[in-house]
Amino acid sequence: MTDRFKYREDREAYSAARVRALEALLIQKGILTDKSVDTVLGYFETKMGPFNGAKIVARAWVDPEFKARLVADTPAAVAELDLPAGMAGAEGEHMRAVANDPGVHNLIICTLCSCYPWPVLGLPPYWYKDPTFRSRAAREPRAVLAEFGVDVPESQQIKVWDSSAQIRWFVVPERPAGTESLSESELEALVTPESMMGVALAKAA
Could you confirm whether 110 is annotated as catalytic? Predict the structure, then answer.
């Protein structure tokens, strides 16, 4: 990932210290219990995250009819799979998928804030919320993608999709070449959160 969208290591430590202080205050006032935050974090570590998105993408790679349904009606297609309950809630409301192909590369941003489909991508990284990323990706997506290591040829169109509270987008990246012999579960390992945001390609086999 480009250094332009990285942060000093102490930024997360500083933010974590502030969160701990706020958590302690809320517990002291009786608004939270000491297990509330751990329960929420555990939920997004084990139930809602990029492992769900990887399952969805891998199924789309092996099943063209599912892929078509996924793009046409994302919530209905996601509901077909054996995924945890709650995929349509907790920042998963109104999810929509767009698929990369040789003619189009899709990029997901949120110009207003950091709207993000948590059930399929996990929690948003710092750089996704950064005003520099959000504004530059909207203005010059090809240059920003190049900084992430994704050189999109001029012959390939780039479409930028702006997530919001009404629609939370994610990308079905192109299936890597040479993966015809891989099983669906093996394909899941090639799908990363970044590829489902459009700032990376799926891993090579």
Answer: yes
